[in-house]
Amino acid sequence: MKHVAVVLFLVNAFFSFSQTEIQFEKNSTLDELKKKAKKEKKLIFIDAYTTWCGPCKWISANIFTDPQVAEYYNKNFINAKFDMEDQGEGTKIGSTYSVMCYPNLLFIDSDGKLVHRTAGAEQDPQYYISLGETAKNPEKRFSAVEAKYRANPSNPTNFKEYMAAVSTTCLDYANELDNFLNQLNEADYLKDENWNIIQEYLTDFNHKTTQYIAKNTSKFSEKFGDQVNDFLFNSIRQTAFDLLNEMDFQENKYQALLNTAKTMELEPVKGIFPMLEIYGYERKSDWEGLFGYLMKNGDEVLDSENKNRYSYIISESATSDVHLKKAEQWMKEVLAEEGGEIWNNLDTYAHVLHKLKRDKEALEYAEKSLNTGEELTEEQITATQTFIEEIKNGN
Fold it and tell me: Labelling 162: which of 11, 92, 259, 305 has CA 20 to 30 A away?
């Protein structure tokens, strides 16, 4: 009997341990998952991630290991994880279900139909249990909300419900928003229900609706106060970042946006304008223009993170000792800050010193960057070790 009790104890202990994290299927294809889901009459939950995605790693470490979340998902779903860049099942799933950002959390039925989805990482474990409950509810999940909207897109309630759902998925909803706004006249923009939609979902500064609001700021501010300035600031910032991230950079459009921003009496815009100028120089690889602007404005506008960033760029692309000396100054300031002696900063400083031909100091700081007590990635360690060898070999 003692032997039986010990075996039962070990089985129970193993089962309890296994429930402290979500049990993901190993090396399964989507077809295999669908068969298992049909057999067990469950939905499939897929964590669509990439290896470089920080939030993906965070939810794996902090949410998928939460006991309540694990118990709920192990009981209610067939769970699987796929790297969206593995050139196999992951990329196939990403293409099939239009995965546009990471982490993307998908709920799929046994026929392969996507029934619910969201993107991003929330910190509250209960959010993920609520997410699962919504996925299981045929009337509340994303597929139901979308179908209801498609059946009657002119219905304001359907539109608002759809926008609330689709805006959490990284799917493009520009056409749906355009269709809604095109139904409105300029007086309609001032109605509370329409303004709420405009300020929450419209991020394109060049859109005709935004342009009308920008030209009639006083009229809107009279009713909506500081919300108007916040809306215009956010639309300028987002439009700038969208232009910067386009594969083919349209410098004329970007410069036109900056020229417009200059004319607007918005304090928040004035605050970000220098960085938008800097990003523009960097995006078009105008290094002389960038370094010239940084020499004049960098001390005022760069925070610690950007001092590091642009010091490293200077170490890679600058030929003038004036630029390199400024980078050295910035990195000394960053390293002197509390908590400043981290790998990233020490590594950058070492690169600046190497470019200044002060290799003894460069080697000292490169070696120091490997001994900060941080948990470094293999990529960071390899990069620094290679750099150390380059210094030693006089490269």
Answer: 92
> 13-22, 210-219, 297-306, 355-364 — which is least confidently predicted?
13-22
Provide the edge-to-edge strand list for the sheet that holds 77-83.
Answer: 77-83, 43-49, 104-108, 114-119
Location of structure tokens 């210094």: 391
DSSP state, residue 24:
B
The amino acid sitting at 387 is F
> Within 10 A of 24 (CB to CB), how many other CB atoms are there?
18
Name the residue with tokens 């981290």.
342
Determine the Cα–Cα distance for residues 251 and 192; give it in Å rounded to an integer.
36
Show me where the domains of the chain are located: 2-136, 173-392
The residue whose two tokens read 């929330």 is: 122
Return the CATH class of domain 2-136: alpha beta
20, HSE (Cβ side, Cα atoms, 13 Å): 6
Contact 34, 106 (CB under 8 A): no
* SS3 state at 352: helix
Percent of the chain at pLDDT > 90 equals 85
Residue 185 CB: number of other CB atoms within 10 A?
Answer: 6
Which two tokens mark 75? 């009981």
CB-based contact 118:169 (threshold 8 Å):
yes
Is residue 239 within 8 Å of 214, Cβ to Cβ?
Answer: no
Count how many Cα atoms sit within 13 Å of the Cα of residue 81 in the half-sphere of its side chain: 15
pTM: 0.74
Express each pLDDT in 73-126 by its tens digit: 999 999 999 999 988 899 999 999 999 999 999 999 999 999 999 999 999 999
**Residue 263 confidence class, pLDDT cut points 50, 70, 90:** confident
Give one word for 357, left, alpha or beta, with left for phi > 0 and alpha for psi -120 to 50.
Answer: left
User: 264-302: string of b/e by CB count within 10 Å (b at 16+)?
Assistant: bebeebeebbbbbbbbbbbbeeebeebbebbeeebeebb
Instruction: Give how far Cα 234 sits from Cα of 82, 210, 281, 322, Å.
Output: 34, 11, 21, 36
Rounded CA gap, 142 and 164, in Å? 10
Render pLDDT for 232-262 as a digit per residue (tens, 0 to 9): 999 999 999 999 999 999 999 999 999 988 8
Pair 30, 89: CB distance under 8 Å: yes
Instruction: Evaluate the omega torsion of the peptide bond into residue 103 and state whether it is cis, within 30 degrees of 0.
Output: yes
Longest dimension (CA), the chain: 86
